[in-house]
Design goal:
Layout (H helix, E strand, L loop, with lengths): L1 H18 L8 H10 L4 H6 L1 H15 L4 H4 L10 H4 L18
């Protein structure tokens, strides 16, 4: 039963990532780790910092796993990330644009 529950949690995690225009085979933690690393630019790194802090805090307290997002990066996933290919594709909140990026 334990492995079944873990598989369901990973599936939900990947579904939420896909709903936010991410790669459907990548976890939110991996995507947040890549954002922290700077893969999506400095604005996305700053915009995702509070979410990343929360995810890392939960995993640190519940599972005693420090730096969960950084340790969860899946290098072989993310190529189908629609938000990376087309930032306007994501239905999830985007980082605020400054006046120099106004449309």
């Amino acid at each position: 039963m334990g492995r079944y529950l873990l598989n369901l949690l990973i599936a939900v995690d990947q579904l939420v990532n896909a709903l936010c225009a991410g790669d459907p085979d990548e976890t939110i933690s991996s995507r947040l780790g890549k954002a922290r690393r700077g893969d999506f630019g400095p604005r996305m790194a700053a915009a995702t910092a509070p979410i990343r802090w929360l995810v890392d805090a939960v995993f640190r307290v519940v599972f005693r796993q420090p730096d969960h997002c950084a340790r969860s990066i899946e290098e072989d996933e993310g190529r189908n990330d629609l938000a990376r290919l087309d930032p306007t594709a994501s239905p999830c909140p985007a980082p605020a644009q400054g006046p120099d990026h106004a449309h």
